[in-house]
Amino acid sequence: MKTIFEKSNGSDGINLTDEPCDLSFIDKEFIRTEKIGLPQIGELEVMRHYKELSDRNFCIEKGFYPLGSCTMKYNPKVNEFLASLEGFQNLHPLSEDSQGTLELMYNLQELLKKITGMDAVTLQPAAGAHGELTGMMIIKKYFEGKNRTKVIIPDSAHGTNPASAKMCGFDIIEIKSNEKGQVDLDALKAVLDESVAAIMMTNPNTLGIFEENVLEISKLMHDNGSLLYYDGANFNAIMGYTNPKLMGFDVVHLNLHKTMATPHGGGGPGAGPVCVTEQLKSYLPAPIVDFDGKKYFRNYNIENSIGAVKSFYGNFGVLIKAYAYILMMGKNLKYASENAVLNANYLKEKLKHILKLPYDVPCMHEFVLSAEDLKKEKNVSALNIAKGLMDENTHPPTIYFPLIVHEAMMIEPTESETKEKMDEFINVMTKIVQETSHEKLANAPYTTPVKRVDETLAARHPDLNGIGL
């Protein structure tokens, strides 16, 4: 009897005979007693199987993807090529002496400092929410021992904002938006006291509206000894025109997998660098990539550091793609923002005649419609419209968020889309809203492999084996 490690029928170390192996050294609970039951098929059939699965997947290359607040812009393929170069792809993440990779990260830090106006950067965080948590950890340590226990969050904020602050031990104070969909200054003043550590804001906010009182807000916070946190999820709307530093923010996280056109979705990988002002530089996660004039190195000498937030330094492949995108765009980054804002306003003006527009003001990169009136009149909900769009080769926009708009549909076309593609979307939306009955939409989609599901159950208990699909 041979062991599984002994050679048989050749010198390749593989047991090619039917002779049983000696498994006595393996606990019985780990030994399979029945055949696996794998299908015996050729490579061609295997490839067809995975190609079919691929064809079922919806992506930005396949159709319009107006997912509000997520900036699903096109990912240039040259970035994928550069990230797959052997010198990058096959390098061990602990290769401390790799000057090329350290130089790339250092240069990316410098570019992000210039784009945001901030004074120091860490590239460690693995995604936007991770960057958000890192930023709040920095604020928490900065106020250590000073009894600053509260964080103010507008009701239009991203859902991860209160979660990140709460995970850092802060108490959350929610303030309402005013009639313009912006931070209510009176509501802010009413809760601002010496126990407040920070306010977390997105500008433009989740409604796609620019906070016109941001300078007054920053003065109120700083006069109170508090800090301002900038959620960079909507940064694609302002690049090259303004920056968080000019608005008075102290901490910024960026979503490189949104703003800098690296792949987005499917749970990652992402990148969420955190940028801070000079007063918070000593609190950044260690190490940061530094340069002494001769050599690039990982600098662990960060006096008040919150410590490392990732086992290896950042999602390096994503950093390469973001760096390539910034170099490729150069000063034209501002035109990405310009066209994103133009596209959003074009869609808003065309669609506000078929669905309710709660805040009828010029928007930035995205806007929010409401199907509230349509639901009352025809019993057609935002969910029904979203399902109907799936039959039209269009990914649904974000629905039911932000929560302050009933039957919300948040639409973000990004700068990637042409006028022709947006006109197609306008026609499809018009057809669904004006010509399609509730009875038909209630059973949509009709053309997708998976039909209606219990979405709450699916989110909490996903069927990863595809059983029952």
Give the ordered list of helices and strands. Answer: HHHHEHEHEHEHEHEHEEEHHEHHEEHHH
Q: Tell me which CATH architecture of the largest domain applies here.
A: 3-Layer(aba) Sandwich
Integer tally of domains: 2
Q: Major beta sheet, specifics? A: 7 strands, mixed
CATH homologous superfamily label of the largest domain: Type I PLP-dependent aspartate aminotransferase-like (Major domain)
By secondary-structure content and strand pairing, the structural class works out as alpha/beta
Radius of gyration, rounded? 26 Å
First-to-last CA distance:
44 Å
CATH topology of the largest domain: Aspartate Aminotransferase, domain 2
Give your account of this protein's structure.
The chain is an alpha/beta fold and 469 residues long. It contains 17 helices and 12 strands. The protein folds into 2 domains: 255 residues, Type I PLP-dependent aspartate aminotransferase-like (Major domain) (Aspartate Aminotransferase, domain 2, 3-Layer(aba) Sandwich), CATH 3.40.640; 127 residues, Aspartate Aminotransferase, domain 1. A hairpin with a 4-residue loop joins strand 8 and strand 9. Helix 5 packs across helix 6. The N terminus is likely disordered.
